[in-house]
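Q&A log
Question type: sequence-to-structure
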Amino acid sequence: MTQLQQIVTTAAQRGLNLQLTLRGVLVAFVVATLAFLPPAIGVIASWWVAGAYTLAAIALTLWLRTGTHAALNWGWLGLYLDLAVLLTLNLIAQQSADTTWTSFVLQSGFFLIPILAATQLRWGVCASVVIPTVGLYTLQAILTQGANENEPWPSIILRVVVLAGVGLAAIWLSRIQRSRVGSIRGLVDDRTRLLTQLMTTTETEHRAMAENLHDGALQYVLAARMDLEDVRDGGPDGAGASFDRLDDALVRTARLLRSTVSELHPAVLEQSGLALAIGQLCSTGAERGALAVSVDTSGWPDEARTDQDRLLFGVARELVSNVVRHAHASRMMVALSLRNGVAELTVRDDGVGFTPGTAARKLSEGHIGVDSQRVKVEAAGGRLQVGSPDTAIDSAVSPAGGERSGATVRVTVPVIRTDPTAGPPARSG
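Response status: OK
Response body:
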């Protein structure tokens, strides 16, 4: 049994336990009514019904306590037994309603039925019990109107309205319980994805670092080695040209190694701030992916430091990496701003696009990067939205011909400024 199934089963079992307790109250109510206010006609038949109901309730309790799949799925059918018993006893007591209060008192038991039904996690089941309960209660009130000293219609209507209100509240409560289970389902899924990411982060980072070193720094080192061999063998280009290529290869290698180390531990983030760190990240991405990159950090103060800088940098790193590796884009635009305690990061490209279907397929294949970043952003009180580029930006980002729609990812998250010049920290509401 998965953790989610265990949670749902536990919630359903708790609902059944409450239902069993309330059914015990209803059985005691029926027995007490017959004991203190027996009907003048049909008292023996009433006791037979009450006895059979008591035995059935005990058997039902023993079955539901087993917690089997069948008990959890079909235990709600016992609610119709409760309703049938109350209806039968009312029909018997109705014969002497003009001389005894048995029928009038038993009608009060109908108010327990919606509460019993509210313990279900399925609001449709609850409604299927509440609706006939209200209908039968109304019928009983009408049939016993004359026996109850010609009870006025307003009294009957008000009693029915109250029961209908209780029933509506029961249905609504059942829906709330179901929605809470749905929320728990989402939290469990998010937790599972985060745990999966935690277990695979090291492997993913090692693979990415290996690819970066192989495709970048290693190629330049190999080229430099070939140039050294040319110099040693007295190649046709001469030593000067070989040394120039060697110098260029070493410069590029140093730059790529520095950027790789920076991605693993962005010291510039602590020293110079998020804006500069993202700028360097985009420069590295532009070089690796042969992209034309535009970075706009004018809306982010140079001295700004916030409690979510590392989160925003991690999200930017994942998004830029996705554009470089998967978008097949020629242009990318990254914007960063800070207004009224809310940080906003936007990454746009002119690549193949990123639809909900694409996201679901990537997730099913085990690519949880963007989805795990979404979970982190939402845990910080923010939002991560994925869509097509805005029309106003399409012309600036899309390639000529407009054959590809590209993608826009916008991240907003409330932050607290931690730099000394920011004044008293304040988080956006």
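Response note: Strands lie at 292-299, 331-339, 342-349, 383-387, 407-414.
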